[in-house]
Structures are given as structure tokens and as C-alpha cells.
Amino acid sequence: MLPVLDPSSIIESDYQEFLALLKKSTFSGDIEFSYASRLAVATDNSIYQQLPQAVVLPKSTEDLSLIGKTASQFENVRFSARGGGTGTNGQSLTSGIIVDMSRYMNNVLEVNAEEGWARVQAGVVKDQLNDALRPLGFFFAPDLSTSNRATVGGMINTDASGQGSLVYGKTSDHVLGLTSVLADGTILNTAPITLEEAKEQSKQHSSLGKITQQLLDSCLGKREQILEKFPRLNRFLTGYDLENTLNKDLTKLDISRVITGSEGSLVFVSEAKVNITPIATFKALVNVKYDSFESALRHAPSMVAANATSVETVDSNVLNLAKQDIIWHSVADLITDVEGKEVLGLNMVEYNSNDQADIEQKIASLSKSLDDAESLGVIGYQITYDKADITKIYAMRKKSVGLLGKIKGSKKPLAFVEDTAVPPENLADFIMEFRALLDSHNLKYGMFGHVDAGVLHVRPALDMCDPEQEAMVPDISDQVVALVAKYGGLMWGEHGKGYRSEYAPTFFGEELYTELRKIKTVFDPLNKMNPGKICTPLESNDSLVKVSGLKRGEFDRQIPIAVRTSFEPAMSCNGNGLCFNYDTTSPMCPSFKITGDRRHSPKGRAGMVREWLRLLSKNNIDVNELEHNEDPPTWFERFRNSTDKKPDNDFSLEVLEVMEGCLACKACSSQCPVSVDVPGFRSRFLSMYYQRYMRPAKDILVGNIEKMAPLMAQAPGFVNFFLSQDWVNTSIRKTIGYVNTPLLSKPTLEKRLKLNQPQSTQFDLGHLQQLDKETLSKKVCIVQDPFTTFYDADVVESLVKLISKLGYQPILLPFMPNGKPQHVKGFLKEFASTAKTAADFLNQLAELEVPLVGVDPSMVLCYRDEYQKVLGDARGDFKVQLVHEWLTQIKLPESKTPSQAAYGLFGHCSEKTALPTSEKQWQQIFKQTGLELSLVSVGCCGMAGTFGHESSHLEESTGIYNLSWQQAVAKFKPEQVLATGYSCRSQVARFEAFKPKHPLQILEKNL
Ligand SMILES: Cc1cc2nc3c(=O)[nH]c(=O)nc-3n(C[C@H](O)[C@H](O)[C@H](O)COP(=O)(O)OP(=O)(O)OC[C@H]3O[C@@H](n4cnc5c(N)ncnc54)[C@H](O)[C@@H]3O)c2cc1C
Ligand code: SF4
Ligand code: SF4
User: Fold this and answer.
1) 91-135 residue pLDDT tens
2) Is residue 678 within 6 Å of ligand 3 at its C-beta?
3) In a mutational test of the pocket of ligand 3, which residue from 593, 677, 678 has the highest number of ligand atoms less than 8 Å from its CB?
């Protein structure tokens, strides 16, 4: 039986006292110290893992100040600020307290377009800021691949930059002023001041005075050494930015500049005033294709010289991975293959201008040079002027880092030497030598980067569960440090230092490094702010974090290999954070979007399961045996475990909480770059969890819905009357935890068809098996699902009519449970048996080669994915198509009544993530028949099967609907709103005064 899994992780006493005091104070944010909450922020995108003592989530500058003031009473209480947690080198990891700015401090406070600035809280996500600026014609210029989840606070503290940095600079170039909080709670407002003002300010006996004096001493006093030491690179040396804290003519001092790039080791940044840049009117992107990566690298400088706004490059490894990902569908036409040649390198060359003639002239001149560049390895190029297309190509490029993680096997590409910067003219030679270095260790890797700025992204693949390979990390790091030094570059051209801080003395040199320590001393004398990162205060004996620090592999390797392999999706999460996507119209991940709680994300859930598996192994539990337990505990034992003996130290309870919050929408299964399929391991967890504890009534209800629905449909009038009574609904809510229980279709599907389409109900397998191919080719079988058949019968009825109108003979197959609800709730044994029965039946039909068509996307997709996983080869090769998949193969007639206005298609999130072309196919189908269909960009509707009907999730379900659906639905007339998912139609019906139609119903009516 699943044992009680006690993580035995006690919070240190100082921290306990601190948290208790903070709780008693006027602190208005959240304080979390459950093991799960701590675990959710114990990793980032790096190879490191460090469990903090607690997580505090402030709501204001005053909250931050309270944290500092309260902590002043405890010398040992230390912090690390955290934004999106996308650091690649453990920047935000700490054994102290995580101060998470992202949940509440995420408001754009003010935008002044006339003066060209915006004021934001530190937890605002970069794309969120740009969404607020776009209508005003502006954007926040420094870019980074993680723009949909990294926060402005994180960007400031790593001095982030990326594509276009030659023109747009780094984050530090855009910070006009900061509101920060020191470790003792003092609030600091900083903006550039004249040198005279600075000298005056330095006389104050305050923290600000001391800081100003030290910066004058270090930055002015050591000016010569600073200029001599640092390479003149676009990606200059930060952390701390000694050079640019003073302006070039030494007339101004800007304290914000030293905070920028300080990785939270000086202050908590609370608010920032940043400048904003007008969006260029015209853009063009040229995708130049090469016969080798080296050709792409060597050719790039000439394009930079020809005034390109930016030049980005990717190698063939990255390109090939992108081609296999869902994202390729959006760019396939923009980066086509070259006939008879292999594209082994790609440069993406961007031009921006407010003058159309200027941009056309630049493109004409580039095209001319590319036409003559065959000898330089150019094998083709494509130009696009469309801003939406350009955005799609960059989205593909931004996803590339994550895609590297998709490599099969235990060796995974890792971020530890991934952002070197060298003078761009040295880049090609540097990369050739870098490749030789990695090849000498027999390592695999993919490469891409900002060639214009000399920045290279490379992630060597290592298996961190293997101690020998783990030991290679410091070795390779040392060698890369030496290599970048040889080429006059930097180890950290983009992503900051984090655990690489041990190399800081090497890059700064002893004299200037001492200045850093002096600066740290005036800001944070007790080393409370992100200790170990960048430097320690002068008098401190604390050490820096090291590349050889505690790694995630140390924990992962405690899980037996067989279990790791079996739970590969949870193991392979690399923390790149794409699942924290801020965009409300993106399907990933609704539960994180609505809670703002990192536990409730694919990354959070993958981390919980890994730790759960580790604790099981520590308790000598064989997961395989547990999962296939032939002798599970009795009902009485489970009852006892769930009542008087239910412990509060069982980690399984915390894991259950995060799994319960998952909608099982499966967006992560296809949108996560490494396909972390949460519903898959969630159902396995539930099946093991409920060996120990009692199942709630709602799970039993859902698990049996496919048995109950046909029975209830025998007397729909009676059931509906019963379900329409307030007292019944109240008691269902109170006892089972179910709300808005849907009413059955009346008349039932069976009755409707017997009346209108009697032929379609006469299924006889034996008879079908007798028919010849010609006769069979006119038949189409409809695979029923419990939701559409019993609760949305008019949709199935329309499908029957539509098939007839198209000249085919519809056959309604007998209802056969699909098992999806059992899978969602973790009744895995029952699911396997249901799936086997259904698969056997459908395989018999498949032999007849008659199309099998189903209506509901999540049910149909279950036949493809979960059936394959549970049955393996026994699944057979039957194929159930969705309606649009069948229709695309059929010649369609013109509509009788062409569209008066465009219909809007609200796609089902599981469908559009698993079948990315589905919406476009519906659009094509409508177009062929003369009807107009626009594709509406929305995220999850919040219903997801039965999730939205569970009273415990009602608030979240409503919130998710309001994130994107509510506004989008309001833009259409009710009769124009079309939705492919049963869940989506029910969710709209619940909140609006109408139920949308399925697109097939419009076709049927109009043909
Ligand atoms: C797939 C991938 C691609 C990436 N591509 C790029 C890229 O193109 N360019 C680039 O520059 N970086 C890139 N990064 C690195 C990372 O996204 C950036 O460093 C980003 O700026 C971190 O922002 P965050 O909000 O996630 O910060 P976090 O990771 O949460 O924190 C980063 C650092 O900032 C500190 N910090 C955060 N908020 C505050 C605050 N309010 N006050 C004080 N300190 C704070 C933390 O303590 C930590 O030291 C990439 C990372 C990944 C995973
Ligand atoms: S679940 Fe996927 S998207 Fe999320 S952090 Fe892990 S690997 Fe990245
Ligand atoms: S299935 Fe949906 S809700 Fe669950 S983790 Fe994946 S994206 Fe989030």
C-alpha cells in the first residue's frame, strides 16, 4: 500500500519565528511554507536545485519593506527575489526565503506615451507590458526568448537582452528610475542625478548617502582600470555595471544602473520607470538559407554591416527539432525547403524603418548580394513584410531553446555555458573551437544565437543522473571560460551569473572585484540578499555559490532508472517555464493562469511527481508493484486512512491538491517543448493515491458517467424534472460537490433518429460484413460519445443529416463507453478494460474501411493518445476521425445561403493543440461552401469535461472563462458563435443566455 510519505523537511527555527512575526504584522501578501510550495520554486531552468524555507508573495512596496524590517531582527534570515523563475544558472535559487514578485506585483501602473515612458511593478511580464503599449504604438525594446513569462524585475536584475540588441540595447539602457527596498526595509528611489547632486547626496548619513559615496569611489575613482579591464562589447560586463553607473562624460551618476544586473544581490526591485520605443511602421524579415552552419556564421557580419536591425542564426539541429514541433505549422510556408539541397544553417535578417522606400531599397540591395552569394554557401532566401508572419518566425526561434530538450534519451541539453559573448568578428572562429571542445568530450549539442552581438546559445547534452557526467560540468565550464577569454569575450553574455559567480573574480580582476564587494557591503552588509551570488560583503566569510553546487540530478538519480523511464514526461521537464505563458489566449496552462500559483502548472506538477517518486524510492516502494497492486487495501482500510488516521505530514496529500487543480486539458502534452504530459502521470498518481485513501463521490460519479448516462436517457423527462429542482441541486452540490448538472437531451437522440432518419439507427455488423466495397464506400459510421449523444443530441442529429445531404449513408454505431472520464479520474484498470472493449469493436469496423467519425474532440483524441498508451499494440490501427477531418476529404456543394456575416470559430483547446491545423481546416471547409468563418483566438474555456461542474473548481472555472472567452464571445452575435467542444458549448451556455452551435450544424443547415 502507498505509505505515508513524510518529506521530513523542517523549517529552521529563525525562519519559523520570522514568518510568524510577518504573519502578525500588516503584511498583506501570501506566506507559503508547505513542502509543495517550497518545492515549486526549488528549481529554475538550470541544473541546480535548492529547497527554500518558505515563499512570501508581497502585494506592495510596503509589504517588501515590512519583510526587510521584520527580518532585521534575524541575522540569519536571507532572501532571494524571484520573478518568472526562468534563470538558466540558478540565479533565484536560495536556501532562505523566496520573495516572489510575480503573483501580485504585476501591474502596469502608468504609461506616458507623450514623454515615452511606462511605470510598472517588478512582476509585470515583458509581453504583458508590450500588450499594454501596442495600442499606443510603443514597445519595451529589450527582447528575450522568455518574453511571455520573464518579468521586468527579472530582466532588470539579469540585464536581459536578446534579438535586436545592437539597435535596442540591453534592459539597463531602458531603465529611467527604480523604487527598491534594501535588506533592512529601507525604501530607495533612484534615478540619474548630476555629479554635483551625487556628491551632495553622498554626505547624507543614510543608506543612500553611503551607497552614493561608495559608487563615486568605485566608479569614478577606478575609472581608468574599469575602462581598461572591460571588453567593449554590445553585451558588456554587468553585475555590477561599474562602467555605466557614470555616463560617458562623467557628468551623471545613476544608482539604478548598478542595481541593473545585480541578480537580486543588492535590493528587491519593487517598481521601475522604463523608457518605451515607438514601433517601426515597416518591417521586413529575410530568411537566408545556407549549406552549412559555418557559412551562416561567416556570412552574418556582412549583413550586420549592411545595417540590418538584427541578425539571428540557428543551426540544422535546432531547425530539425522545430520542424517536428507543433510550432512549425505556423512557419512552414515562410521557411520552405530548398529543392535538392539540405538547409544546414539559417540567418534571420530583420530590417525596421518608418520609411517604406528605405526598407525596400535595403531589401533590394540585400537580395542582389544574396543572388550572387552561392559561393558563400547561400542556397536560398525568402522575404516577408508581414508583421504577423515575422512574429511567428520569432516565436519559433524563441521556442528553440526549449526544443533542444526534446532530444531522446537520458542525455539532455543543459544550460551552463550557453550564453557566451565574443566580439562578433571572432564569432565564427570561436564557435569552431567551441565545437571542437564539445566534440572532444563526445557531446551532442544544438546551436543558435544572436550573431550580430557575438552571442552564442549552446546547450551540451549530459545525463545529470550519472555522477561521472555531472562531474564534467565544472571541467567544461573551466575550459569555456578560458576559450572566451582567448577570444576577448565573456562567459555570461546574456543570462547572468548565478552559480557561475565563482568566475566573477577572474573576469573582474582582483582590484575591481574588491570594488564589487565594497558596493555589496554598503547595500547589504549582512549578506542577506541572494547570498552567494556575484560577491560577498567585504568583511563576510560566506562563500560564493559554485558550478559544482547541489544539482537536480542528485535528487533525480535516487529514483530507479525503470521508474524514471516510465515517468519520462515528469522527469524531462527542464524548467524553461513556457507553461507560465502569460498570454490569456494561449491554451497553456489554464490552472496556472488563474491561480498564479507555480505549483499549479505543468512544471509544478512535474516537480511534485518527481519528488513523490523519490520519496517512494526512499521508502523502498517499488512503484511498478504499487501501480499494479493485485491485492489493494480494502474499503475499510481506505476509510480508516481517510478519517481518524489521515496524517498531515503525508506529501501525497499535497501532490493530490496540485493534481486536483489540473483541468486535464492536455495543452501541456503538445505545447510544452518537451511534451510534459501532465494528464498522463496525473491519472497514474491518482490510481495509486486512491489505493490508500477513499475516493470522493464526485470522482465515482464521473468515472461512471458513461454507464449512467444511457440509463438516465431511458427517462430523460423524469431525470430532467428531478435535476431542475433547487433542492436537488443544492443536495447534489453539498453531497457530491457537483454544480450546474446538465440536463439530458429531450427527445433523446435515439427517438429523434428513429423518427427522422430511421435507416441510420439500423446497425448490423454481420450485414455490413457481407456488403461489397462499392456499397460500403457510401457509408459513414458515427462513433457516439456520452456527452454529445445524451446531452447535445441535436449536434449528432445534424451530423446524420449532413452525411445524408452529402450523398452518404450514415450509420449510428451503438453507444460504447470511451473511457476518457475514467482516465481523467485515475480509474486506470477500468479504463484499460473499457479501452480494450471499444478498440476490439472499432477494429472490426476498421476492417470494412468505412470512415469512423466522432464529434467531440477530447473523446476522439483519447482513442489516439491514451488508447495507444494503455493498450500498446493491442490498440490495433482503427482510426476515428473528427468531423472536419472527414469533411476535408469530401467534395462539398455550395451553400444555399452565403454568409451574411462571418461566423466565429472557438476551437477546443485539446483539439487545436493536438491538431494544430484543425481550425484552418474548418475555415477551408466553410470557404469551399461559400461561408465565412473567422478563427477566434482564445485559451481554455474553463469547463474541460467535468472540471467546471465540480463545486470546488467553480470559481476557477469561471475565472478561466473570463480570461479570454467572455470578451471574445461578446464580440459576436449568439448565432455566429461556433464551438467544436461539448465542454465549451456548455460553458458558454452556463454564463451567457445561449448555447453555441457546432460548426457542422451550420453546414448542415446551409447545404
Ligand atoms: C528558454 C530560455 C531562453 C532564454 N532566453 C533569454 C534571452 O534571450 N535573453 C536573456 O537575457 N535571457 C534569456 N533567458 C534567461 C532568463 O529568461 C532571463 O534572465 C530573465 O531576465 C529572467 O527573468 P525572470 O523574471 O524569470 O527572473 P528570475 O529567474 O525569477 O530571476 C532572475 C534574477 O533576478 C532576480 N530578481 C527577479 N526579480 C527581482 C526583483 N523584483 N528584485 C530583485 N531581484 C529580482 C532574481 O533574484 C534572480 O537573481 C532565457 C531563459 C530560458 C529558460
Ligand atoms: S513543463 Fe514543459 S514548458 Fe513547463 S517548465 Fe517543464 S519543460 Fe518547460
Ligand atoms: S493538462 Fe492543462 S491544466 Fe493540466 S497541467 Fe496541462 S496545461 Fe495545465
Assistant:
1) 999 999 999 999 999 999 999 999 999 999 999 999 999 999 999
2) yes
3) 678
Looking at the CA of residue 606, tell me the nearest atom of ligand 2: 1
Quote the ligand 3 centre to 960 CA distance (angstroms): 13
Ligand nearest to the CA of 589: 3
Contact criterion met (CB below 8 Å) for 979 and 942: no
The dihedrals phi and psi of 952, each to the nearest 5 degrees, come to -65, -20
Q: Which ligand is nearest to the CA of 577?
A: 2
Ligand 3 atom nearest the C-alpha of 940 is 2
Neighbours of 433 (CB within 10 A): 13
Predicted confidence (pLDDT) at residue 452 exceeds the cutoff of 90: no
610 in ligand 2 pocket by Cβ < 6 Å?
no
Q: What pLDDT sits at residue 302?
A: 86
Confidence of residue 50 (pLDDT cuts 50, 70, 90): very high
Say which amino acid occupies 260.
Answer: T
Distance 318 CA to ligand 3 centre (A): 26
| DSSP notation for 113-164 | TTTTEEEEETT-BHHHHHHHHGGGTEE-----TTTTT-BHHHHHHHT---TT
CA 850 to ligand 1 centroid distance, Å: 54
Cα separation, 543 vs 537, in Å, equals: 10
Query: Which tens digit of pLDDT belongs to each residue from 701-726?
Result: 999 999 999 999 999 999 999 999 99
For ligand 3, atom 4, which residue shows the shortest CA distance?
A: 662
Which residues form the pocket of ligand 1, taking CB atoms under 6 Å from any ligand atom? 44-45, 80-88, 91-92, 101, 122, 144-146, 150-151, 153-155, 157-158, 160-162, 263-264, 268-269, 401-402, 494-496, 530, 576-577
Q: Which ligand is nearest to the CA of 45?
A: 1
Pairing outcome for strands 880-882 and 903-906: unpaired
Asked whether the beta carbons of 53 and 97 are under 8 A apart, the reply is yes
Q: Mind listing the pLDDT tens digit for each residue in 593-611?
A: 999 999 999 999 999 999 9
d(CA 438, ligand 3 centre) in Å:
36
pLDDT tens digits, one per residue of 23-35: 999 999 999 999 9
How would you classify residue 546: left for phi > 0, otherwise alpha for psi between -120 and 50, otherwise beta?
Answer: beta
589 lines ligand 3 (CB under 6 A): yes
Which atom of ligand 3 sits closest to the CA of residue 666?
Answer: 1
Model confidence at 896: pLDDT above 80: no
Q: What is the mean pLDDT of the chain?
A: 93
Task: Provide the terminal-to-terminal Cα distance of the chain, rounded to the nearest Å.
Answer: 59
Is the pLDDT confidence value at 899 over 70? no
SS3 809: strand
Ligand 2 atom showing the smallest separation from residue 405 Cα: 7
Q: Give the C-alpha separation, 459 to 14, whole Å.
A: 39
The grid cell for 600 is 499549479
Distances (CA, A) of 706 to 702, 712, 795, 797, 833: 8, 10, 18, 20, 14
Residue type, 537: P
Q: How far is Cα 949 from Cα 481, in angstroms, rounded to an integer?
A: 56
In SS3 terms, 586-653 reads as CCCCHHHHHHCCHHHCHHHHHHHHHHHHHHHHHCCCCHHHHHCCCCCCCHHHHHHHHCCCCCCCCHHH
H helices of 537-601, where? 552-556, 561-566, 568-571, 590-595
* Ligand 2 atom with least separation from CA of 576: 8
What is the rounded average pLDDT of the residues 502-513? 90
What is the best residue among 124, 145, 259 to mutate for testing ligand 1's pocket, by most ligand atoms within 8 Å of CB? Answer: 145
Say what angle helices 678-692 and 635-642 make with each other, to 10 degrees. Answer: 100
pLDDT tens-digit readout, 475-506: 999 999 999 989 988 888 888 899 999 998 88
Confidence of residue 428 (pLDDT cuts 50, 70, 90): confident
